[in-house]
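G., the chain you wanted modeled:
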Amino acid sequence: MRPVSELTPEERAALRYYEEYEPPEPVRHEPRFPLLRKLLGPLIAVGALLVKFGGVLLKGKFFFSIFISAAFYVWYGGWWFGIGLIVLLFVHEMGHVLEAKRQGLPVTAPLFIPFFGAFITMKQMPHDAWNEAKVGIAGPLVGSAGALALWIAGEAADSNSLKAIAFLGFLINLFNLLPVVPLDGGRIVGALHPALWFVGFLALLGLVVVRPNPLLILILIFSGMELWNRWQTRNHPERQSYYRVRPSQRVTMGVLYFGLAILLVVGMHATHVPRDLFK
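Predicted structure as tokens:
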């Protein structure tokens, strides 16, 4: 590069021009409808995530259903009620899952439905009524143990909120012992005597008449359909073979079933909290 002293006057003037020249700032155009763009921005981002990860979300039906149910229960009865109920339902259903897994039966994760509880689906039925009864009673047994733990915690902390949740847990598990299909009790009493299905159906019918609500009516309808189906196939050889249970097994399941029902009533009585004492 030539030194400045050797430049001609024209070249020196051109050099000073380029040194002092500042390019103009680019013109910035304000976007149209700025407020609308700010409002739609988060929605567009969420939509992009759903498109990208929608397949993964659909595979997580368990997490989605438990989140939606928890939101409904919290909205309906507050945080104590909502979270406590979800925990109780989860513990109950995991009892079924653990026993089904122990028997080598393929089973789905619990699926939660707001105000209808939760359920699992077995892709293969147990080998006989005895094994079905064990899967059926595992839920109330484990669920009752969970409610008992809340009761103990409530007594230790002198918390009426925990005692009330324990009461709800005892009530849920006792209701599930009603001897009608699709409730757990219907699967349990199949190992005792099929006549108990008729007793359970009549008891449920009386409950619907005294305290009608959509959930009881729906269970009554499903119970009636299942009872009619089993009555029609009662003489089928496979059906008769399925319900052959040894006397010792009947006694064992009978003790577990009726004994648990009595203990749940005792637990409900001990954990009942009057409204004026609830805190």
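The chain has one domain: 61-277.

Shout if anything looks off.
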